[in-house]
Amino acid sequence: MGRRQIDSEPTRWVPLGLLLMGLFSCFLVYMFMSVVLRPSEKIQFLSVSENESVELVDNNGGCCRGMDHFELWGAAVKWGSDFKFNSSVECCDACKAMCNGKDGPCLCDSWVFCGNPDACGSKYGECWLKKQKDPLAPDKQDAGENTIWTSGLIYGKGEGIVKMETQYGPLHIKLLPECAPRSVMYILELLTMRHCAGCQFYRAEGRGQSWDSEGNHLNSAPFGPPFALVQGTLEAEGVLFKKIPTEECPIIQRGSVAWIGSGPEFFISLANHEEWKKSYTVFGYVLPEDMEIAEKIATLPTVPDVWNNINVSVLEKPVVFLISKG
């Protein structure tokens, strides 16, 4: 009996050991992904701190986000004094309902909501639906801690498109303000500057033998390197960049345009990266017909480098781009 008792002790610890091994494996995968897109000190990156994270809103598979303490102006198509809701999401949805993409330009492309009972007083619940003269240059009324309103933009079919003009052709990008309003507002600010000195792609890696032409991962193939992306920066010289808090982080798909950390470094994905989970704020996507330009950049001459123990491919000559209305 004594011998059997001794034999049974290891058996009792087997499940715990397996659990610890599983947790350790998950930790290694997380650490690996945290450095895949992060270069060495030669190219600075900003990382998101835990207190910058915000709660994600998923409305029936979509997004309906706005910016607090921010008021958009514009011609009203629904008067908030007679149009009230309990949440900003409901107000956003009401605007979306007037922008279904089937009947041309949106009847509503911006919304303004007052959701703080104490600060709003009699205006609490007011939902103003508005129409901008130029959705890529929205009329801003006020911003700051004393602003009681929450506002957001809606881009319908064929709207909200900006262009990254490179020497190899244009990359038209559809912005996603409902999912990443702060990110999109930063891009719109770049448009007002009429230049983006310093904006460039500096890393380019094709799909290799790991993904097919549609971005699907091939069975038993490694997940990189190469990592199927082009990477660059959206920081204009002479302009102080402010960290952008984490916004909507869906699974990265072919064509996704996403921040690395809290920006201004970003990447365009050339493949579907389910293995990256929901790790990056996606603020737009490249129109399918322009993906060949991103693929072309990924074939340019590169030199190998190592960033945080990860092998990467850096462009011999960075590809500069201008950003303008699409």
From TrEMBL:
SUPFAM superfamilies: Cyclophilin-like. Keywords: Isomerase, Membrane, Transmembrane, Transmembrane helix. The chain crosses the membrane at residues 12-33. This is Peptidyl-prolyl cis-trans isomerase. The keyword Transmembrane helix applies. The lineage of its organism: Eukaryota, Viridiplantae, Streptophyta, Embryophyta, Tracheophyta. One of its GO terms (molecular function) is peptidyl-prolyl cis-trans isomerase activity. PROSITE patterns: PROKAR_LIPOPROTEIN. Residues 162-314 form the PPIase cyclophilin-type domain. It comes from Artemisia annua.
